[in-house]
Amino acid sequence: MLTIRSRCWLCRQPLRLAQHGICSYCLRQLPMPPPCCPCCGLPAGDTRYPCGRCLQKTPPWQRLVFVADYVSPLSRLIKQLKFQRRPELAPLLARLLLLRWLHLRREQYLNRPEMILTVPLQKMRRWRRGYNQSELLAAPLARWLGCEYRPQALRRIRATAAQQRLTARQRKRNLRGAFRCEDNLAGRHVVLLDDVVTTGSTAAEIAALLQAQGVASLQIWCICRTL
Ligand SMILES: [Zn+2]
Ligand SMILES: [Zn+2]
């Protein structure tokens, strides 16, 4: 008997490798991102060099790696992971990110991270959900890449309003001083992982903290980047 978990999450066909979560057909059908700036991840003519926006105002990180735009079916899987208590989707999404990173690493130079950090959830939200989706993504990635995962390195030191309905400027103000870094990360090659990057204000707020610590390099990894 096939259990539900040995079927593809998208087309429900039986899987040869249950741990992949998605069949090779659906994997090929996933939307590919358009050519993007390696730094901010927004559509750009050249995928090798930072775009004009990044040259004018350099983001506080070196690279942004993502699987696809925030569109179906990935957006649906992320919503299930976050809001419908489907933590079992995390390894599948983490694997898509790993495949993307390996692909980019072949094309362009990318540091192998020494350490993965995750954006901490607000206590109440974490308690209600029962888990932090980013932690579930980070743990298998750290295992596959042979690097460290430090779930406690970043801490939220004050509650913030939900970001969804705020403008970019309001988001920035909302997050100012909301996080603290509890570890010494000087000289380390670090990845900051979040499930979705929208305006990048959360990533930027934490990245500034990490840069102030003197990290050697910083990559932002996410499953989806809204384009
Ligand atoms: Zn499938
Ligand atoms: Zn850019």
TrEMBL record:
InterPro entries: ComF/GntX_DNA_util-trans, PRTase-like, PRTase_dom. It comes from the Bacteria. Residues 137-225 form the Phosphoribosyltransferase domain. Belongs to the ComF/GntX family. PANTHER family: DNA UTILIZATION PROTEIN YHGH. This is DNA utilization protein GntX. It comes from Serratia rhizosphaerae.
